[in-house]
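Mods, move this if it's the wrong board.
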Amino acid sequence: MSTRARRAPAKKALPHPDLREVPVSLVLRALGEPLRLGIVRSLAQSEHPMNCSSFGLSVSKSTSTYHFKVLRESGVISQFEEGTSRYSELRDTELEQRFPGLLTAILAATEDPAGG
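Not the wrong board. Structure tokens:
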């Protein structure tokens, strides 16, 4: 039996945009979809990056992957792979610097089923 220590899998960051180049309309479009907003709400409540499979989304894996991609490409989240798992985390500090108060206001808002 080998006495070599096992190395932890390396983290591989997925590409995400520089928020200085992201228009607010792209962020709003990403957050305007209820499933993506739910993902962001979950991330905002978590103290650690979340494994993408831990969200319990009621959509197919390909649809889930699409929604995470939209959030990443709009600058709302960052993602990294560790081994065979993909993790997401909210870019809340960067979003606050770029769009002061925007994320806080969106997360504090409640859904109005009457649409008014």
